[in-house]
Known about the structure:
The structure is a homodimer.
Chain A: H1 8-23, E1 31-32, H2 34-41, H3 45-55, E2 65-66, H4 67-78, E3 84-89, H5 93-99, E4 109-116, E5 123-124, E6 127-131, H6 135-142, E7 146-149, H7 153-165, E8 170-173, E9 186-189, H8 192-210
Parallel strand pairs in A: 3-4, 3-7, 4-6, 7-8, 8-9
Antiparallel strand pairs in A: 1-2, 5-6
Helix pairs in contact in A: 1-4, 2-3
Amino acid sequence: MERKEISKSVLKRLPGYLAYLKTIPEGQSPYISATALANALGMGEVQVRKDLAMVSDGGRPKIGYNRMSLIDDIEQFLGYDNTTDAVLIGAGKLGQALLGYSGFDAYGLNILAAFDANPASETVDGKPILPISELESFCKANKVLMGIITVPAVHAQSVCDNLIACGIKAVWNFAPVHLEVPANILVQNENMATSLAVLSMHLQAQIKDKK
Amino acid sequence: MERKEISKSVLKRLPGYLAYLKTIPEGQSPYISATALANALGMGEVQVRKDLAMVSDGGRPKIGYNRMSLIDDIEQFLGYDNTTDAVLIGAGKLGQALLGYSGFDAYGLNILAAFDANPASETVDGKPILPISELESFCKANKVLMGIITVPAVHAQSVCDNLIACGIKAVWNFAPVHLEVPANILVQNENMATSLAVLSMHLQAQIKDKK
């Protein structure tokens, strides 16, 4: 179907639908309605109906969606069927954890290699950790478009500039700092430090209330 | 200083200030002004000045902040000096990666143990993986207030309900699904699947534009 403009809030809900659809056992009806999906997930029916209509045109009145086709439509929409090759910069603790995490396969992400100013080891789970001096030739040889930044915050902007010079178009940033990029580059921030601060402040407030 | 109400956007910037302040070498002046910090990070001076005033009352006209005191004030504000004990539910790939990641120490997070319906091993990096049946007694014995959810989306709500019944007040949710919780419980979502979908969609659009 034709690709429509989609908001981030819809994008946030799609992986939830997908996860639920995949857990329905084989023996069930091959069809599922937006209403049934909304009830199962405790969500509003109108919202689910609208969200599904954004990503699939397979919905039929009174029958609903063919479940397997809907799974395919959502996965295609989210790009999970296209494997995206990425490089990761900064093979510290977080970088090594992400490099060794095999669960990204399900989302179509393939981290080819990590790069570090001072590689402490040669590989993590069979993936190479290379000196940063090899980044440009590696990205160009492998036509890499996504870069993952796991360096300390103070180095993140220069690493980001370097990635863009190497042809990267999308940056997944785990450093707790705002990155300046040209308009055609997308930065997605994953700020775990901020999340922890928000949680920690909530707990402090709760403990204070009890006193 | 008295704790003021603070917005999430301020919270997001604080870890960046902290990271930069910690990289300034010992030999430099013990003072730093909001202007100098704003210039170093490429941010607006007014914003930095306001943010710092929220977390520290140590700023002096024409001199600025004592750098070490400012670091302490930000860390105290973010709760990094209070260690928060947490349990993690779901010792799959992501759960094990988080359990073995030692970098959370710097943010005051201490994951005591993981719980799983079918523990595949007994420990990860010395941290125990326990059967889910032991969750309640463990949380109560250790007065645990934070739970980290890394189970598949379809099980996340029941795990969340279980955690709340065990006395958890703050939930860090890595499952790609919305969780319903009572008003006094805070859920912080870390939706890596959504981030990857956003990045992937950007790349697809870029590739399409080139054709």
